[in-house]
Design goal:
14 strands; mainly beta; about 0% helix; Porin; about 250 residues; globular
């Protein structure tokens, strides 16, 4: 079964990570942020324990015809220890249009994730995430049903590179009658610091769900860190899909 390039093109800008704590903490004592976006995969590492880390950005997706989706995603991360943490996220605002040009805008769904890290050594670790997405978004944007997911993670430093491997299984609440509720997503990223301030990341990811076209995505991103607690990233995704659903 051959694959073809999808008509959708995705550009993402994310995120500004801010570690916030006591005003008496000096700038030199503030830890570095641990960005999760704009890539699909997430690292096994958590943010600095006891610090609230914030990610926010803008996501622009283009599909067939007049189809498009613009959103303002956000993520709040809080680690209790180096191995346990929680994250809250969602779309603060969404504007989307279907192929006919029919538009709807408003708030999006919200999610919560509990994360556990399993250190192997100083250079590698496993991770496990259990998450739920709740239908808090406006009608026409939200599916109206909750989704539940489990994400297995492996992260490692390989020389001057860093890799994150994810395998996610999601039970989708709202599906068509001939579509399986279980969706599998895989993602593999490779990143490298070019200097103290600049870095690059490349990633391949894909999904499989019986009754739905299988999708593969190639992503490249650029990172700029102006301070340890501030990081800006920009990424561009290109999607591919198979000719027939499985």
């Amino acid at each position: 079964m051959t694959s073809k390039t999808n008509t959708s093109l995705l550009a993402a800008v994310a995120a500004l990570g801010c570690a916030t704590a006591s005003a008496q903490t000096s700038i030199d004592e503030r830890p570095s942020v641990t960005p999760y976006r704009p890539s699909v995969s997430t690292p096994a590492a958590l943010s600095a324990p006891g610090w609230l880390e914030v990610e926010g950005g803008a996501l622009f997706a283009r599909g067939a015809g007049s189809a498009r989706r613009d959103s303002v995603p956000y993520t709040l991360k809080l680690a209790f220890t180096p191995d346990w943490g929680v994250r809250l996220g969602g779309d603060a605002w969404v504007r989307q249009a279907d192929e006919t040009g029919q538009r709807v805008s408003g708030g999006g769904d919200s999610s919560i994730v509990l994360k556990r890290r399993f250190a192997i050594n100083d250079a590698s670790a496993f991770g496990l995430e259990a998450g739920a997405t709740f239908p808090t978004g406006r009608r026409g944007i939200s599916s109206g049903k909750s989704d539940y997911s489990l994400n297995a993670i492996y992260s490692a430093d390989i020389g001057s590179y860093h890799t994150d491997l994810n395998l996610v299984s999601t039970r989708i609440g709202a599906v068509d009658p001939d579509v399986n509720r279980l969706q599998t997503l895989w993602a593999a990223s490779l990143s490298k610091s070019l200097s103290e301030r600049w870095g690059v990341v490349g990633e391949f990811s894909g999904t499989h769900q019986r009754g739905v076209l299988r999708v593969g995505v190639a992503d490249v991103g650029l990172q700029h860190r102006d301070r340890a607690e501030h990081l800006v990233e920009a990424g561009l995704d290109r999607g591919h899909r198979l000719d027939h659903p499985r």
